[in-house]
# Entry
Amino acid sequence: MASITEAELALAIERTLVVKGKIPEAEVRPTARMVMGYFGADGTVLDNKLSSEDRDRFYLLEEEGLLTSEEEDATVSRGKTWRIHYWLLRKGRIREAGQSGPTPPPDDAESMYRSIDDRDWKRTAPSGTSK
# Structure
């Protein structure tokens, strides 16, 4: 399958993570750029190359099906086994998410609830009553 472009990944991120409120829209391009910086032309990247912040972002992308992770065991000197973790782009899912039509509008009820200030959520007993 042909390589994924940064633009394709950005569109897929926008239509999955942003729509669900998992990352702000301002982080779409930087996230796509960071991911593509690790993968480049390859389809896999070793987990130990990631910073902890980047790994957290990879886990978000995995939750949406845009990335997946795998592991394999490798025998090294003196019979020791090392477990190697790596990440893979799910190219088909990225393209599917990017081509699934216009981004759906945010849920009106959700935006209404998000607009209510925290202090408005606190209940207080009416004056003159006791619990």
